[in-house]
Design goal:
The protein is α/β, with parallel strands linked by helices. The protein is 36% helix and 17% strand.
Length: 549
C-alpha cells in the first residue's frame, strides 16, 4: 500500500503481513495509535493482560508453540521494565519473540521525560537486537527485520522502540511480505562424518534441546536415533523435544536427574549434541560435561555459528537447523544393534515411575501418577521455577513438541501466563499450570485474563508455606539458620473462586484423584490447592534427610 497512513496503521498492517494473529498487551498511552489501528483489524486478537510480566511470558509461550515470534506490546518505563523478564527468558530459552515498546516523543529524548528509559542500554544485554523506529515510512523495513532477526540462527527476542509521535505521522510506506526462517541445509560430507563417528563409538549418547525444534524435527530425529539404537537425553526443561515413548529415550538432564543417566554420560566416548547449548543447568555447572570434554568426542550441531566453539570445544561443528534428523536418516544403521538405547530407556522407565512415599501425607509423586492415568499424553504442562516442578519433570511423560512450557532461565511466575497462551493457541489440548505457592503469586493475577478469555485450564498450586528451593540451599550452606524464606499464604482455592473459577483444596494423597476427576469434568478455570509440607523437599530427598547430612 502507498496511500498515506498513520505510523500506527502501518505497523499493524505489517504485523498482519507477517502473519500475526494475536498480540499480548497491557495498554499504554505511548502507543494509542497502534491500539486505534487494532480496533479495525479483526484478524489480530488483542489479549489484554493484567501485568507486563504476564505479557512477556505469554509472548514467549506463543513463540514456542508457533515457531514464529510471539508479539508483546507494552508502554515505556514501568511497562518495559516489567516486561523485561519475558525478554530475558526468551533469550535464554532461544524462543522467537518481539517486544514493541512505546516511547517518549522524539523531541523529548534525553531530557529524562516522563518514564523515559534508554532502551538500547537497558535491553541490549538481554536480547538479540534493539531497534528504534524514528521514521514512520521505515516501519515495514524495521518490522521485517525484527521478524527475521527473531527467527534466524538461534531464535530469540527483539525489542522494537516506538516513539509515540512517530506513530501519529501520516506517510506513504510500502509493506513487506511475510518472511520465513532461512533454511540451513547440512553438508553431505559432514553427515557422512557423523556416521563414521557413530560406527567407531562404543558408548555414544545424544543430548538434544535448545533452539529451533518442531514436531517434524522431533519425529525426524527420533527416526534416526531409533534406527541406530542411540540413547537420547534431553537438555534441562526440553523433554518435549523427544518422545518419551521412544524405545531409546534416556531421560532428562538438569536438576535432580537419574544418577544412572549421569553415569552413562560420563562414560560416553561420543557426545552428539543437537540444538542444546550445554548450559549450566544441563551440565551441572559445566562439570558433567566439561568445556574441553577430555576423553570424549563432541559433535555439536546448532543453528547459530556464534554458539559453536564459544564455550565447548567441538571435534565437529555443524551450523544447521533442527531438520538435521532428516539428513541423519540417510545414514545406514548397523545391522546388529548395541541395545544401549533399550537399556537406557529401561533405566528411565524405572526412574520415572513414582514409588509411594509413606512419610508424606500428600505424596506429589502419586499425584503426578494419577494425572498420567487421567489425562491425555499430549497435555501441555506449564510451570515456573521451584522444587515443586521436580515432581513433574521426573514423573510426567511429555509427549509431543510444545507440551512442556517451562523456563530454562529459571524464572518464577511463568506457569499461569503461559497456560493462558497455550489455551488460546491450542484449545484442542488439555492445559495444566503447575505452580508453587511463592511461584503462583508472582503472576497469579493472570487468572483474571484466563477467565476473561474463556480459557479451559487446570491450575495446581503446591503450597508448603516456604520458598522451598531457597530453604533447601539454606539448609545445605547455613544449617539451622533459616532466614527470609517462610511465607504467609492466602486461601488459594478461595482466591480462584473470587476470580470466577472452580476450586478445591486437597491435603491427602487419596483425595487427589477424585478432586482431579471433578476438576476435569468442568469447563473454564479450575484450581486444585495442594497443601503439602516443606519436609518433602524434592522427589529424592526430605528436609530431615538433608539436615542429617
Amino acid at each position: 500500500m502507498t496511500a498515506k497512513r498513520t505510523g500506527g496503521r502501518i505497523l499493524v498492517d505489517n504485523l498482519v503481513a507477517q502473519g500475526t494473529d494475536r498480540i499480548f498487551t497491557v495498554p499504554g498511552e505511548s502507543f494509542l495509535a497502534v491500539l486505534d489501528a487494532l480496533h479495525d483489524t479483526p484478524s489480530i486478537e488483542v489479549v489484554v493482560c493484567r501485568q507486563e510480566g504476564g505479557v512477556g511470558f505469554m509472548a514467549c509461550a506463543d513463540g514456542k508453540l508457533t515457531g514464529r515470534p510471539g508479539i508483546a506490546f507494552v508502554t515505556r518505563g514501568p511497562g518495559a521494565t516489567n516486561a523485561s523478564i519475558g525478554v530475558h527468558v526468551a533469550m535464554q530459552d532461544s524462543l522467537p519473540m518481539i517486544l514493541f515498546v512505546g516511547d517518549v516523543a522524539r523531541g523529548d529524548r534525553d531530557r529524562e521525560a516522563f518514564q523515559e528509559v534508554d532502551f538500547g542500554q537497558m535491553f541490549g544485554p538481554l536480547c538479540k537486537k534493539v531497534l528504534r523506529i524514528d521514521r514512520a515510512e521505515r516501519i515495514p523495513e524495521y518490522t521485517a527485520r525484527a521478524y527475521a532477526t527473531a527467527m534466524s540462527g538461534r531464535p530469540g527476542p527483539v525489542v522494537v522502540v516506538l516513539p509515540e509521535d512517530m506513530l501519529l505521522e501520516e506517510v506513504e510506506a510500502v509493506d513487506r511480505p511475510q518472511l520465513g526462517r532461512p533454511l540451513q541445509v547440512p553438508c553431505p560430507q559432514e553427515i557422512a562424518r557423523i556416521g563414521e563417528a557413530l560406527r567407531a563409538a562404543e558408548r555414544p549418547i545424544a543430548i538434544i534441546g535448545g533452539a529451533d525444534w518442531s514436531q517434524a524435527a522431533t519425529d525426524a530425529f527420533a527416526g534416526f536415533a531409533e534406527a541406530w539404537d542411540l540413547p537420547v537425553a534431553t537438555a534441562f526443561r526440553r523433554q518435549d523435544c523427544f518422545p518419551s515413548t521412544s524405545p531409546v529415550f534416556a531421560g532428562n538432564l538438569g536438576y535432580g536427574p537419574n544418577p544412572k543417566l549421569l553415569e552413562r554420560i560420563r562414560r560416553a566416548d561420543l557426545l552428539l549434541v543437537v540444538g542444546a547449548r550445554l548450559g549450566e543447568a544441563t551440565t551441572d555447572g559445566y562439570t558433567l560435561i566439561r568445556p574441553d570434554h577430555s576423553g570424549q568426542k563432541l559433535i555439536h550441531i546448532h543453528p547459530d555459528p556464534e554458539e559453536l566453539n564459544s564455550v565447548y570445544q567441538a571435534d565437529q561443528a555443524l551450523c544447521v537447523d533442527m531438520t538435521i534428523g532428516l539428513a541423519l536418516q540417510t545414514l545406514e544403521a548397523p545391522a546388529v544393534q548395541s541395545r544401549k538405547g533399550g537399556e537406557a530407556h529401561a533405566e528411565w522407565l524405572d526412574w520415572s515411575t513414582p514409588k509411594p512415599r509413606e512419610s508424606a501425607r500428600l505424596d506429589l509423586g502419586q499425584c503426578v501418577l494419577a494425572m498420567r492415568e487421567a489425562m491425555p499424553a499430549d497435555t501441555i504442562i506449564c510451570n515456573g521455577a521451584g522444587n515443586f516442578s521436580g515432581w513433574w519433570h521426573r514423573y510426567w511423560r511429555y509427549e509431543g513438541y510444545g507440551t512442556q512450557l517451562a523456563p530454562t532461565a529459571g524464572a518464577m511466575g511463568y506457569g499461569v501466563p503461559t497456560a493462558v497462551a497455550a489455551c488460546l493457541r491450542r484449545p484442542e489440548q488439555k492445559v495444566v499450570a503447575v505452580a508453587g505457592d511463592g511461584d503462583f503469586l508472582m503472576n497469579g493475577q493472570e487468572l483474571a485474563t484466563a477467565v476473561a478469555y474463556g480459557c479451559d485450564m487446570l491450575v495446581i498450586v503446591v503450597d508448603n508455606g516456604w520458598y522451598g528451593t531457597i530453604r533447601m540451599h539454606q539448609e545445605r550452606e547455613y544449617p539451622g539458620r533459616v532466614s527470609g524464606t517462610q511465607l504467609h499464604n492466602p486461601d488459594f482455592a478461595a482466591l480462584a473462586r473470587a476470580y470466577g473459577g472452580w476450586a478445591e483444596t486437597v491435603e491427602e494423597t487419596d483425595r487427589f484423584a477424585p478432586a482431579l476427576a471433578r476438576a476435569l469434568d468442568k469447563k473454564g478455570v479450575k484450581l486444585l490447592h495442594l497443601k503439602t509440607d516443606v519436609e518433602q523437599l524434592t522427589p529424592a530427598i526430605t528436609l530431615s534427610q538433608l539436615q542429617r547430612k
